[in-house]
Amino acid sequence: MNPVYEFFALEPYCWPPERIATLTDFQIEHLYLTPAKRRSDALAARAGGFDYSHLSDDPADEMPTKAEFVRGMVAHQGGTAAHWSDVYDKMQARPADE
Question: What is the DSSP letter of 20?
Fold first, then answer.
């Protein structure tokens, strides 16, 4: 899907294609995308430069090994190794396009 179409078709806009088609390139860039980027940059600055990229659902991101995942989750979230092992198995079984 075209990233600009996706931007307007999904939340918070949820615009139908007919409304998206009425926008000019100037309107898209200067009224919507640039202000959104400024807000995003300001939010990142307030977060103290914390890197949220590890939260991406990008399929290009490799999953940690099961042992790494379980060790990290038990250390940071608590719970049992068996629980986090089951969670890891469920994540691996998830279809890629989900």
Answer: H
